[in-house]
Amino acid sequence: MLDLCITNCKLEIGAEEVCLGINNEKIVSIKKLPSKAHETIDLRGKLILPGLIDAHVHFRDPGLTIKEDFSTGSAAAAAGGFTTVMDMPNTIPPTNTPQDFREKMGIASRKSLVDFGLHAGVADLSNMGKLAKLRPASFKIFMDLVDDDFLMDAFSKINGVSGDHLISLHAEDPQVVNQCTHEMKMKGSSPELYAEARPPQAEIEAVVSAISLGNKFDQKIHFCHVSTRKSLKLINEAKKAGSKITSEITPHHLFLDSGCLKTYGNRTKTNPPLRDNENRLQVNDLNYIDIIGTDHAPHTLDEKKKDVWNAPPGIPGLETVLPLLLTQLNQGKIALGDIKRLLCETPAKIFNIPHKGFIREGMDADLVVVDLKKESVIDPASFQSKAKYSPFEGFHVQGLPVMTMVRGKLVMQDGEILKNQGKFVYPDTVNIKRIYSN
Ligand code: DOR
Ligand code: ZN
Ligand code: ZN
Question: Which fold is adopted by the domain 51-350?
Answer without folding.
Answer: TIM Barrel (3.20.20)
